[in-house]
Amino acid sequence: MSAQLPEPADKGDIWNRVLRATLTMPGARVDRTAFLHKEFSKHFPLEIVESAISKTPAQAGIPAVTIRRIAESSISWHRSGVTAASFAAGLPGGWWMAGTMPADLTQFFWHIAVVLQKLAYLHGWPELLINGEELDDETLHIFTIFVGVMFGATGAGKLLAQLSERLSEQIATRLPKEALTKWGLYRLARSIAKWIGVKLTKESFSRVLSKAIPVLGAFVSGTITWISISQMSNRLLTHLEKLHPHTGTTD
Hints:
globular; two-stranded antiparallel sheet; 251 residues; 12 helices; single chain; EcsC protein family protein
């Protein structure tokens, strides 16, 4: 099954439509409270779990080693799931012109979207996507910043650090809708969206991944998928760990 997509107006719109199709799939929205409660209740008493939810895991005193262990477990679960589906190594170029998005591409980014939410919540980020709320442009661009970090897009890491720094001034369990426009980061987020859009349309998706992750080469599809999601997820994990949990600034 392929998701129907209108013909894009520009490269940024191409990525936004890929992302919108992905985030409207069942299960794409990770409930922050439920996720943190499920993971931390295995290891800590209720009062610490509730503190991690109302504040951040780091502020609740949860050790960094535990956060990393849970993060790695989440990455492993999604890596196994998407690899088991045997993601196609050579999706044909031109799918955006036909107005459809291959199901394999949507599936890959579904796992990317879900794992990035889990990693974000483990590292003190507020709710990124609320169940029942409209999927607006602001939310799409915030997800784009995270995915940009995973792809290694120029400036994405710095932009995520800037957003984190501004959010650190207010303890909240959900992301303010006006975040990007309020802090003047909207234009930069759109530039990253265009960068990803260009990558998705210039080449087949397997070649996009091989550009982003040099070790791929011409491996079989399952290996490409396994390495891709591993490298992209760990790139984001490493970046999030460099952000101070209380100030949001980088080392």
